[in-house]
Design brief:
With about 575 residues, the protein is of the alpha+beta class. It is built from 18 helices and 15 strands.
Length: about 575
């Protein structure tokens, strides 16, 4: 094994290359980067877009009997004036309805959620004395982005009462709530089960039964009363008397009066129906021409929808897949065969498709870069540079996992964006090592270290310059700041990783795999495509340097092109949008 070069007169880049060119740690670094990156890729949560922390809450205030105008003047405007002065509040807006007012408070992006809600609650509680008479206590309901459902399942069946579909939906939801990673869940649509009592006034008059008698009996009966406990054998058994009314028979058998020494049951003076109450809203599903399954005869059929959100920080893909697996497992036992099941929303699948699509684009970009490297550098030098690309990407993914990032569209876009930049350091190092190797009889270790030492300072400066170009994105305000945050975070990390890999892995690999042919030694320019480009580049530069008229035309052309590009947005040739389609 060749000896290392003494550290005398070596800069930082040369010392790093001198240490790692023959060190066994280099292989360990490569192995660690690969394993850390694969682990991060497998366990990092996937989502379609980055999570944005925007604390918000709805403050609901009720004043029975008040009109929307009274709600606006007496509740909405005073409450907004109180809350707008709260630190960290971005804006508020109110909604006035009959007997109810809602003020939505939105805090600035990045504010701490718990602290914001505590401040909001304290401000409301400290101003309760300013509420008008007859106002009920305010209700503060946090609004969280994580409460948005990632999966919705629609149950539908023609000719089935909404309340029955709703019962099936609640039975299914009880199992879906137990899935690891699931959070807020609810059922939308259908009418809740109600026991409707339709009173017969003639019968009530005949039996001398009043409405207050019936109300009093129902309220007194529909309760559970603790009546004591049995203690024994190290166990305590609670005893309750009474009982909740469970079905129409229980309600119909209530004794509401006595007539001729005989009990009068509620079913004697009314018609009792166990079913839905008055229809307040309709929830229907319709099947379009693109639907591939069996379509019902009716265009629209009754439906209810189950919605499940994921817990913050969990993998949307994993949670959605686990919920669907649970649904398939319980479907034969809980869902009747005549009830259709449709997945009407699956953010987990969308996130997975978006991530996989960008991963394909990333692979295409890597392949394109490799082909260009082979074209310009030759297959040996290109192979060495190609080795560094996955190592850099794996290091970036591992750092992102440690920083709490998720794999989303913006994260992968930042990797694609940095792909053309992160190979520059390794290319410069390999090219300079190749140039040093062309000298006949040179020691390969000393030549590689000298090559890295020679270009160390300008390479450091170029890398830092690229990093500084992305740092201003950290100060982007509003919602776009945290949305685009992976770009200024990941690109500098990728550049630092590329510099470290260029000084450690590239010299190590060049020393072992970069071979110099006989006709390429002693400084001869190798006949490759790069030599062809170099000759034309030299011809153009000689003309620009020696001819003042050519220099003026060149500078004028550059300035004119810059002005033309700057004017494109002004004439709407290039349109500005917050997000691409």
């Amino acid at each position: 094994m060749a000896k290392q070069t003494p550290n005398t007169d070596l800069n930082l880049a040369g010392r790093i290359a001198n240490y790692f060119i023959n060190s066994k740690l280099t292989l360990l670094i490569m192995l660690f980067a690969f394993l850390a990156g694969m682990f991060a890729f497998l366990v990092t949560p996937r989502e379609e877009n980055p999570s944005i922390l925007v604390p918000a809450a709805n403050v609901m205030v009720m004043k029975p009997g008040a009109s929307p105008t009274e709600i606006e003047q007496l509740i909405i405007k005073p409450l907004e004036a109180i809350l707008q002065g709260l630190s960290g509040v971005d804006h508020t807006y109110g909604t006035a309805m009959n007997s109810t007012g809602v003020v939505t408070v939105v805090f600035k992006v990045g504010q701490n959620k718990e602290q914001s809600l505590v401040k909001l609650y304290d401000r409301i509680m400290s101003n309760l004395d300013r509420m008008p008479a007859g106002t009920l206590p305010p209700l503060v309901k946090p609004a969280d982005v994580d409460d948005v459902p990632i999966l919705t399942v629609t149950l539908s069946c023609a000719g089935v009462e909404d309340c029955r579909l709703r019962r099936v939906a609640y039975d299914v939801l009880e199992h879906l709530r137990r899935v690891e990673g699931s959070a807020l869940s609810f059922v939308h649509g259908g009418e809740p089960r109600k026991i409707n009592v339709y009173l017969d006034l003639e019968r009530m008059h005949a039996y001398n039964v009043t409405l207050s008698d019936i109300r009093q009996v129902v309220n007194a009966t529909n309760v559970n009363i603790p009546s004591g406990a049995f203690v024994g054998n190290n166990r305590v058994a609670a005893v309750q008397s009474g009982g909740m009314l469970k079905n129409a028979d229980d309600v119909g058998n209530l004794v509401v009066a006595l007539a001729a020494h005989r009990p009068v049951y509620l079913k004697d003076v009314s018609r009792i129906v166990d079913g839905p109450g008055e229809i307040e809203h309709l929830h229907r599903i319709a099947y379009g021409p693109a639907y591939s399954g069996a379509k019902p005869q009716d265009y629209e059929i009754p439906a209810v929808t189950l919605a499940v959100a994921k817990r913050a920080g969990t993998n949307a893909v994993t949670v959605a897949d686990n919920i669907l697996a649970t649904l398939e497992r319980i479907r034969p036992t809980l869902i009747p065969t005549n009830v259709g099941v449709n997945i009407t929303r699956n953010d987990g699948a969308r996130a997975n498709d978006a991530v996989n699509t960008l991963m394909e684009h990333l692979a295409i970009a890597v392949g394109t870069v490799v082909l260009l490297l082979v074209f310009f550098l030759g297959w040996r030098a290109a192979s060495i540079v190609t080795i560094t690309i996955p190592l850099i990407l794996f290091i970036t993914l591992a750092v992102g996992y440690i920083a709490g990032q998720s794999i989303n569209r913006i994260t992968l876009f930042s990797l694609i964006l940095s792909l053309g930049l992160l190979v520059d350091d390794s290319i410069v190092v390999i090219e300079n090592i190749f140039r040093h190797y062309t000298h006949k009889g040179v020691d390969r270790v000393r030549a590689a270290v000298a090559a890295v030492n020679e270009i160390g300072k300008p390479t450091n400066l170029a890398t830092i310059t690229v990093m500084l170009a992305f740092l201003p994105m950290f100060w982007v305000g509003g919602m776009m700041g945290p949305y685009m945050a992976p770009i200024p975070s990941n690109v500098p990390v990728a550049m630092i990783a590329s510099l470290a890999i260029a000084y450690t892995v590239a010299p190590w690999a060049a020393y072992r795999f970069l071979k110099i042919k006989g006709h390429e030694q002693q400084g001869a320019v190798h006949e490759t495509h790069a030599g062809f480009l170099e000759r034309h580049y030299e011809k153009i530069m000689r003309r620009l340097i020696s001819t003042s008229a050519a220099r003026r035309r060149f500078i004028f052309g550059i300035v004119a092109a810059l002005v033309a590009v700057a004017l494109l947005p002004a004439f709407s040739v290039v349109k500005f949008k917050m997000l691409p389609k």
